[in-house]
Structure formats: C-alpha cells, structure tokens
Amino acid sequence: MTWLDYQHLETRLSTMRCHRKQVFHRLQRKEWIAVVVCLAEVKWPKTVYFRLFKQYFADVRVL
Fold first, then answer.
1. Of the four, 10, 11, 35, 62, which is 20 to 30 A from 18 by CA?
2. What's the mean pLDDT when you consider all of the chain?
C-alpha cells in the first residue's frame, strides 16, 4: 500500500464519519481490504473492526 493510497484512504475514512452510509456503499471490495490493512497498521480497537465488518457484510448483501 503506497503513501498515496493511504492518503486517499484517510480522506475516505474522514468522509465516512460525516455520512458513513453513503461512503460505505461506494467502497469497492479492494478498498475494503485496504481499509482493513490500514486499520491493522493503526491497531484500532477490535470493536471498530467488528463494526466495519458488520457494515461490510450488510453492504455486500445489498450489492
């Protein structure tokens, strides 16, 4: 994951806080993997992972 990808992800994540649902629906599968990798590097709490995965599987069912 390059620095540019990380920057893009940072923007995406900060946007998510404002209107999470719309952004989540626009995230593509590879971006989800990038988010997980990014979170693993940042070492976010397990609850955050859980919430993300719950949202991910909900979105996959919608798509």
1. 62
2. 62
> In this predicted structure, what is the pLDDT of residue 51?
75
pTM summary value: 0.27
Decide: 9 and 34 in contact? Cβ < 8 Å. yes
How confident is the model over 24-47, as a mean pLDDT? 64
The structural domains of the chain, with segments of one domain joined by +, span: 3-62
Say if residues 55 and 63 touch (Cβ distance below 8 Å).
no
Alpha-carbon distances of 24 from 8, 15, 18, 31, 58, rounded to whole Å: 14, 10, 11, 10, 10
Beta carbons of 26 and 62 less than 8 angstroms apart: no
Chain centroid to CA 20: 10
